[in-house]
C-alpha cells in the first residue's frame, strides 16, 4: 500500500503544472498549457556534466528569484537522454536556452553563459 501511495504521489508531482520561477522537467502538456496562457517560458536544454549549463542555471536562478522575473517558467530538457525532444526545438547542443512568450519564440542562446546574454533571453519572454 505504501508503494502505491508513493507511486501515486510521484505521478501527481510529474503531471502537476509548471510553477513560475521553478525549474521543471519539460512535458508537452505543461508547455502547451503555458503557451495557451501566453506565459513567459524558457526551454533549457542542459546536461548535468556541462559547465556552461551550470553557469547558465546559476544566472537563471538569480533572475527568477527577483520580482521582475518571478513569473518566468523554466522547462528543462536533458541533453543526454531526450535527443528527439531537443531536436524538435532545433537545438544543436546542450546549454541552449529558448525563450517563448506564449507560442512565439522570443530569443535563443547556445553555449554562452554571459550573464547579460542569459538575462536578455529571460527578459525577452516578458515582451
What does this structure look like?
With 127 residues, the chain is an alpha/beta fold. It has five helices and five strands, in the order αβαβαβαββα. The longest helix has 14 residues. It is globular. Strands 1-3-2-4-5 form a five-stranded mixed β-sheet, with helices on both faces. A hairpin with a 2-residue loop joins strand 4 and strand 5. Helix 3 packs across helix 5.
Write the layout of secondary structure elements.
Elements (H helix, E strand, L loop, with lengths): L1 H14 L7 E3 L2 H9 L3 E7 L4 H14 L8 E6 L4 H6 L7 E6 L2 E7 L4 H10 L3
Parallel strand pairs: 1-3, 2-3
Antiparallel strand pairs: 2-4, 4-5
Helix pairs in contact: 3-5
Please estimate the helix content.
Answer: 40-55%
Shape, per Cα inertia axes: globular
Helix-strand category: alpha/beta
* Biggest sheet: strand arrangement: 1-3-2-4-5
Say which CATH homologous superfamily is assigned: Glutaredoxin
Output the number of helix runs: 5
According to DSSP, the number of beta strands is 5
CATH architecture: 3-Layer(aba) Sandwich
Radius of gyration: 15 Å
Determine and state the CATH class.
Answer: Alpha Beta
| Stretches with pLDDT under 50, minimum 5 residues | 1-16
Would you list the SSEs in sequence order as H and E? HEHEHEHEEH
**Hey, roughly how much beta strand do the residues contain?**
15-25%
**CATH overall fold name:** Glutaredoxin
Compact overview of the structure:
The protein has 127 residues and is of the alpha/beta class. It has helices at 2-15, 28-36, 51-64, 83-88, 115-124, and strands at 23-25, 40-46, 73-78, 96-101, 104-110. 42% of the residues lie in helices and 23% in strands.
Amino acid at each position: 500500500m505504501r508503494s502505491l501511495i508513493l507511486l501515486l504521489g510521484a505521478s501527481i508531482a510529474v503531471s502537476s503544472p509548471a510553477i513560475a520561477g521553478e525549474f521543471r522537467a519539460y512535458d508537452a502538456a505543461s508547455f502547451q498549457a503555458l503557451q495557451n496562457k501566453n506565459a513567459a517560458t524558457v526551454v533549457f536544454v542542459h546536461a548535468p556534466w556541462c559547465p556552461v549549463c551550470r553557469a547558465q542555471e546559476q544566472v537563471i536562478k538569480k533572475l527568477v528569484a527577483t520580482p521582475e522575473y518571478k513569473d518566468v517558467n523554466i522547462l528543462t530538457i536533458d541533453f543526454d537522454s531526450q535527443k528527439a525532444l531537443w531536436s524538435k526545438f532545433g537545438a544543436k547542443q546542450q546549454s541552449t536556452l529558448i525563450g517563448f512568450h506564449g507560442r512565439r519564440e522570443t530569443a535563443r542562446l547556445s553555449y554562452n553563459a554571459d550573464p547579460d546574454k542569459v538575462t536578455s533571453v529571460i527578459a525577452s519572454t516578458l515582451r
